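A quick aside before the break. I want you to see a complete sequence-to-structure record at least once, exactly as it would be stored in a machine-readable document. Don't worry about memorizing anything.
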Amino acid sequence: HRKKGAENISQMISDGIQTDAQSQKCILSSSNDILSQQSQISST
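That is the input. The structure line, written in tokens, reads:
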């Protein structure tokens, strides 16, 4: 039983890492959009 619990925990951790990476990509892309918008505004 203990081993199965450890496997579940490791699975949860790996899933969490994947979701963190995906959310980080979203944050990076959105921040890049904001930066490009600001540069366009300042250039005009």
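Two observations worth writing down. Residues 2-43 form the longest helix (42 residues). The mean pLDDT is 82. We'll return to this after the break.
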